[in-house]
């Protein structure tokens, strides 16, 4: 029988029961490979309940650093009887099935084209432990030890990680080390190593393993945020929680006095109301939420747009509509966020691709909010926000000053400068503002969500309203020059075709480009990093016969925005959409583009045997 053989280039998937304590062990497995110098791409696929339902953890071991999901599984660790058939079916021909062999299973539960590896995990644990919870928790460490022996992970690396993990509970260190060796010793005495092997390398370098939500929260700190108002919602809650921790470290005086305000409001409407109020008062403020929260926040977002008050929203997108799939990933809030609010509204969006950009764009968003005096959306998704990604170390320029935008000071007003809150004096659509109590007699204005003239005086005169709305469009044009520019990858050979993508799709897209080139399909590629779209984006489309738009939603929302904003012929933008709630794979992109171009669909090559 053919067996897959690979070194530092294969996919391991764990199938567990949520609440069984497996998450810690599976994360330990992934981090031990990183500590061996081999990059990994890890994805947690979990249910929207506390315990009992199936959960999966996928680890792509990739010395070449291909950090998108590949698709397919080479080694399945099948620990959940409820999903057994589905999990076994997912294994690549020639792959491996690892399972608890304490209880015999009938032959029809296996496949003849895979290698079955049984370890009596339950029996091993029952012989050692008495308490049911001990048996369950240590069983997870036993299978990590068994896997380490099967695929060649140095046990010392895992031991060191366990020692760090339980440093605050030293009594547990020895017990976990013992469980680890119980699994490894069984394999060494009874089984042979698999064809899939981990070998120490140096390809990780100085990269870090970090969740996008934590990175974005730290970006908010560096961006000067002092106010966070939020309401818990998956998958954004950990962003607010991370911000709390960072503020305790970096926003607290030595005497214990807090220099921040974090409010868990009664709902999303109150959250954004607090943020807009804080922004009006001169504070840098944000909320974090997901699609259902954006729906509730829409009226206040419209107020931010029309009254021109800075605000930042971190939208960690999930599967919709309605409650949808709360613990699955999508990129399906683009239209909702970009045009949130009744009437004619448009809001800048930032599209980070990994935790490092979550940090960078998280900090940048507050400068943009102050500069443009409006709501800025930072568009993460569950895959990026709640999973740990290997990324370049975070960097910050200590000489950087916060950009507070156009603010008239006491001295400006004393000098007699003409102040009109909605007066465009520079032609860029952005007026000057004042902070409350800047001057005892000058610079005050009435903040309204109703129509007004340039001096903030109420007016329903049609021409005044139109002038104000046109100024807001000029401001949106100015925003094109401030958002992060798109990044382009030129094909190795001249081509008339291109591809546009954004956000967490990037790693899979980069790998797909390489595979397509080996099949004679060359594409220029552009990663869009923000909205409004710069002229560079429209020029890229104009300079190609057709441009595939890759996104993770059903309706092609980025494509719709490109067509709407650039008045593009829809036929020029073929749409490739992936929206089953799992992160997009390179295999999917290769197959879809190949089919649309009339070329035979090809799979990503398996590792050499």
How would you characterize the overall build of this protein?
With 609 residues, the chain is an alpha/beta fold. It folds into 4 domains: 6-197, Pyruvate-ferredoxin oxidoreductase, PFOR, domain III (Pyruvate-ferredoxin Oxidoreductase, domain 3); 210-391, Thiamin diphosphate (ThDP)-binding fold, Pyr/PP domains (Rossmann fold, 3-Layer(aba) Sandwich), CATH 3.40.50; 406-483, no CATH class; 487-596, Rossmann fold, CATH 3.40.50.920. Helix content is 37%, strand content 18%. It has 19 helices and 22 strands. The strands form 5 sheets. A 7-stranded mixed sheet has the order 11-10-12-13-15-14-20, sandwiched between helices. It has a 6-stranded mixed sheet with strand order 3-4-2-5-6-7. Helix 12 (355-372) links the parallel strand 14 and strand 15. Helix 9 runs parallel beside helix 10 (291-307). 46% of the residues are buried.
What is the class of the largest domain in the CATH system? Alpha Beta
- Gyration radius (Cα, Å) is 27 Å
Strand percentage: 15-25%
Strand order of the largest sheet: 11-10-12-13-15-14-20
The coarse overall form would be: globular
Class by alpha and beta content:
alpha/beta
CATH architecture verdict of the largest domain? 3-Layer(aba) Sandwich
Distance between the termini: 13 Å
Helix content: 25-40%
What's the number of helices?
19
Major sheet attributes:
7 strands, mixed
What is the fold-level CATH name, i.e. the topology of the largest domain? Pyruvate-ferredoxin Oxidoreductase, domain 3
State the total count of DSSP E strands.
22
């Amino acid at each position: 029988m053919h067996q897959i053989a690979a070194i530092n280039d294969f996919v391991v998937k764990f199938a567990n029961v949520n609440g069984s304590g497996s998450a810690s062990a599976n994360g330990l497995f992934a981090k031990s490979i990183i500590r061996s110098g081999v990059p990994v791409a890890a994805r947690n696929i979990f249910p929207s309940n506390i315990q009992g339902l199936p959960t999966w953890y996928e680890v792509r071991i990739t010395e070449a650093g291909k950090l998108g999901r590949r698709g397919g599984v080479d080694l399945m660790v099948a620990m959940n009887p409820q999903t057994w058939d589905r999990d076994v079916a997912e294994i690549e021909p020639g792959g491996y099935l690892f399972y608890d062999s304490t209880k015999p299973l009938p032959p029809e539960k296996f496949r003849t084209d895979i290698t079955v590896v049984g370890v009596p995990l339950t029996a091993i644990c029952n012989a050692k432990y008495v308490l049911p919870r001990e048996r369950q928790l240590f069983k997870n460490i036993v299978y990590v030890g068994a896997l380490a022996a099967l695929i060649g992970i140095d046990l010392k690396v895992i031991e060191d990680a366990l020692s760090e993990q339980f440093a605050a509970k030293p009594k547990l260190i020895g017990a976990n080390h013992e469980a680890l060796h119980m699994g490894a010793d069984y394999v060494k005495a009874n089984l042979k190593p698999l064809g899939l092997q981990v070998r120490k390398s140096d390809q990780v370098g100085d990269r870090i393993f970090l969740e996008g939500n934590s990175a974005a929260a730290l970006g908010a700190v560096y961006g000067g945020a002092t106010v966070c108002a939020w309401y818990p919602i998956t998958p954004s809650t950990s962003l607010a929680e991370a911000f709390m921790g960072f503020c305790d470290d970096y926003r607290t005086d030595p005497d214990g006095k807090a220099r921040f305000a974090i409010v868990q409001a009664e709902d999303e409407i109150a959250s954004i109301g607090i943020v807009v109020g804080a922004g009006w008062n001169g504070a840098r403020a944000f909320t974090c939420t997901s699609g259902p929260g954006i729906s509730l926040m829409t009226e206040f977002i419209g107020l931010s747009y029309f009254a021109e008050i800075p605000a930042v929203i971190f939208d960690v997108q999930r599967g919709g509509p309605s409650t949808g799939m709360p613990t699955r990933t999508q990129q399906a809030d683009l239209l909702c966020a970009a045009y949130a609010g009744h009437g004619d509204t448009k809001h800048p969006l930032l599209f980070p691709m990994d935790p490092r950009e979550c940090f960078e764009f998280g900090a940048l968003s507050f400068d943009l909010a102050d500069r443009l005096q409006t709501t800025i959306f930072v568009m993460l998704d569950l895959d990026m926000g709640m999973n740990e990604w290997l990324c370049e170390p975070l960097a910050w320029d200590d000489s950087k000053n916060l950009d507070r935008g156009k603010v008239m000071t006491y001295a400006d007003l004393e000098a007699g400068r003409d102040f009109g809150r909605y007066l465009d004096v520079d032609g860029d659509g952005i007026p000057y503002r004042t902070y409350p109590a800047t001057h005892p007699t000058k610079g005050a204005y009435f903040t309204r969500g109703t129509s007004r003239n340039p001096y903030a005086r109420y007016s329903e005169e049609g021409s005044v309203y139109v002038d104000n709305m046109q100024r807001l469009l000029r401001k949106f044009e100015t925003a094109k020059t401030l958002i992060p520019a798109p990044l382009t990858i030129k094909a190795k050979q001249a081509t008339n075709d291109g591809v546009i993508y954004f956000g967490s799709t990037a790693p899979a897209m980069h790998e797909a480009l390489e595979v397509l080139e080996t099949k004679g399909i060359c594409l220029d590629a552009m990663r869009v990093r923000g909205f409004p779209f710069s002229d560079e984006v429209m020029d890229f489309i104009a300079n190609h016969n057709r441009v595939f738009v890759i996104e993770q939603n059903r309706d092609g929302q980025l494509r719709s925005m490109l067509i709407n904003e650039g008045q593009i012929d829809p036929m020029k933008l073929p749409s490739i959409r992936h929206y089953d709630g799992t992160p997009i794979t390179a295999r999917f992109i290769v197959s879809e583009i190949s089919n649309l171009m009339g070329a035979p669909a090809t799979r990503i090559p398996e590792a050499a045997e």
